[in-house]
Write a structure and sequence with these properties.
The protein has 16 helices and no strands. The longest helix is centred in the last third of the chain and has 29 residues.
Length: 364
Amino acid sequence: MRKSYLLINIPRYLSFFLCCSSILFFCFFLPIDPLIAQQNKIDSLIFLLNNDKPDTHKVNHLTQLCLEYGNIGEYDSGIQYGTNALNLGRKISYSKGIANAYNSIGTIYSTQGNYAKALENHFASLKIREDTDDRKGIAVSYNNIGVIYYTQGNYAKAMENYSASLRIKKETGDKRGVAVSYNNIGNIYLEQANYTKALENFSASLRINEETGDKRVTAVCYNNIGGVYSDQGNYDQALKNHFVALRIRKEIGDKEGIATSWLNIGVVYSEKNNLADAISYLQKGLRLFKELEAKEGVKNAYLEISRTYAGGNDYKHAYEYHLLYSQIRDSVFNQESSRQMAEMQTKYRTEKKEKENLLLMQKN
């Protein structure tokens, strides 16, 4: 089974995490090999699943399928496999499998922009991992909870969770996890316009990922370094890094990553006042995010297209896209969602404190 799912953020002008690719074939940009490999992996897992007994192996394979279907943008199938993993894990009392299933389901909800459901599942996973003292799993949960807070603009909470995750990853020797944490912490510094710290963390992450050969996160690092240069007004360096990220994402068939790179390239061209190329790349990204039903990506695409049209004094189209942005923004993030997230955080902390008090009383 693959390691528990890790979420990685991208720069602030496209503040959503990337983690999914797609097997839907677009002959003008996707090489066929990664697509075939992705489908072969799913076919192999289904073959194993059909021959599994109802034991821990079956739970693991169901959870893996949840992740793989999430990677190709088939979220309903992913959630169904994750739910099946949860049900079987409960039936056979397989705590680690239950925690991993919650984590995987939470990841898909995050990608869809359903942050209340995502947080609910990640807190459920964290609780089990703390009960079973699964240190590596706890680090993953902290990271993923941090991603949700980052996406919602709560950078203090995000940093709190990222830092807790990084501390455990260093203790457990999780090299890849350390790289992910450096990357995510770098994003917070980028939000705060602390470019020196941001670049320092992104570069540290990049060095580790090039050592470990993790192409997906390597692409994220180049993407984020491009974000630093873009914010500093060094647009040539920004484009250079974004195109490196795009090339890697095409190589591995990371469809959501490709959409992200297209949007980021479009934003840089917009800043350079190259409006024709800007709209071209932004529209490519928008179409792909719609294909993936990734609300956060669609939301950001609408906003950047609106800004670009406004920069070209095309206020009619600017208004139309800003209206679309406002509508989807309200559906992705609203007061009710924020209230639910706060309630879950409070509930988790209360239960944790009660458990600590109970253990203390038993010890006394």
